[in-house]
Amino acid sequence: METPTIIPSHTVAHWLLTTIDNTLDALGMGRHRTTEEIIYLVAVSIVAFAVAWIIKKIIFVSVRKLVKMRKITIGLELLQWHTLRKVCQIIPPLILLALVPFAFESTHSMRFWIFRIVGIYGLVALGIALGAVFDFAFNHYNIHQNKRNLPLRGLLNVAKGILWIVLSICSVSLLLDKSPAFLLTGLGAFAAALMLIFKDSILGFVAGIQMSQNDMLHVGDWIVVPDTPANGVVMDMTLSTVKVRNFDNTIVTVPPYTLISNSFQNWRGMSQSGARRIMQNLTIDLTTVRRLTAGEVDAMCAPHPRLKEFVTSLRAAGRTRQDKPGLNPINGTIETNLGLYRAYISLYIYNNPDFSRAQQLLVNVTGTTPQGYILQLYCFTDTTDWDRYEAIQSDLLEHATTALADFGLAMYTSGSLSLDIEKNGSGQQPQTGDHDTSAPEA
Questions:
Q1: 225: burial class by Cβ within 10 Å (0-12, 13-18, 19+)?
Q2: Whole-model pTM above 0.90?
């Protein structure tokens, strides 16, 4: 018993040829072999595309009803990404390959050329269909299972690139009637040229594997790449480019291998921690820092209950400063007005809910200059939101500068120097430093 074929090509081809002959006889036209072949080719092409259209409609209607009834996510994605439509492109060349050869004699030269052209068309349709399947698999995995937002699009591009290279070799071998192995042996001579042409793709592929393996970069990370304008969120990553949307909504593309060969800053750790660092320096005028008496300490603490409680506890322990270890020590002393001010700012930050207690807190003098003491405010906000962060930082700086007067302190300014220049009649302004034109910190 014969096994039934999927496409009954013999029967359909014989029926089409008989119909064409009968039609020509009915029209009173002579049976010319070339005319019959052309009409047969046109008829087979119409049948092939008509059958493909009918099958595609049946599949679409079935999938839509199934999705509507059972809410199947995969079915909805197949329709949304046009995967089924692209896969159905393979149907017409399969029908043509099954029916076209019967229009010509086996020794007819046109038969071989048409067969090769249809074969190349079938390989292109196969590439489109497999590419659609690759896209569907990538998008489905990227949405539902890529929880770490790994940059996998580079792997997709490599897979599709290899697919089209293989299909191109098969197409050329089919067109030249040569074995693919024969063509592959000749590719060695062009290896250097191919590596030069695909240099960025090869380097990008290697960089993508390294970044994925070491978990260096995710889509959605905020990165800063030195010596480039890249300072924003990673939108996409391919074999040749990493697309970054900067904080000013400009788009910058950077080669992936640049991130591997050079260093770059990734703010993902800050985002995941839920806290963002504030590190600001205040220059305290040297002439305003002095030692305090016990009465002066009490007078300065009177308006600030928390500071008064802190001073009382130190006096009870016979100490002038707190020796508390940990992330949140209250930096300061009761010997000088600057030390008392440091304790006050530490208490202000520690008891403010806008700041994180799980991160390091320091209010310390980092050094001196001819102008004054460098007082550093080092702490973390309880949020990574840019708007809230800037507002909290502004509030802290405003409060820190206005509270200086309560402790007899003052910020260093160049006002006295400017007055001296005006008295000397000079029209030039003093150069106090370079103007900062850098972009705001991410």
A1: buried
A2: no
Query: CA 52 to CA 305: how far, in whole Å?
Result: 84
Q: What does the domain layout of the chain look like in residue ranges?
A: 1-145, 148-268, 274-423
State whether residue 242 is helix, strand or coil.
strand
Fold exhibited by the domain 148-268: SH3 type barrels. (2.30.30)
Closest by Cα among 416, 376, 400 to 287? 416
CA distance 147 to 139: 13
How many Cβ atoms are within 10 Å of 189's Cβ, its own excluded? 8
90-111 pLDDT per residue, tens = 888 888 887 777 666 655 667 7
d(CA 304, CA 281) in angstroms, rounded, equals 23
Question: Residue 334 has what pLDDT?
Answer: 87
Q: HEC string of 138-181?
A: HHHHHHHCCCCCCCCHHHHHHHHHHHHHHHHHHHHHHHHCCCHH
**Residue 417: CA count within 13 A, CB half-sphere:** 9
Domain 274-423 class, CATH top level = alpha beta
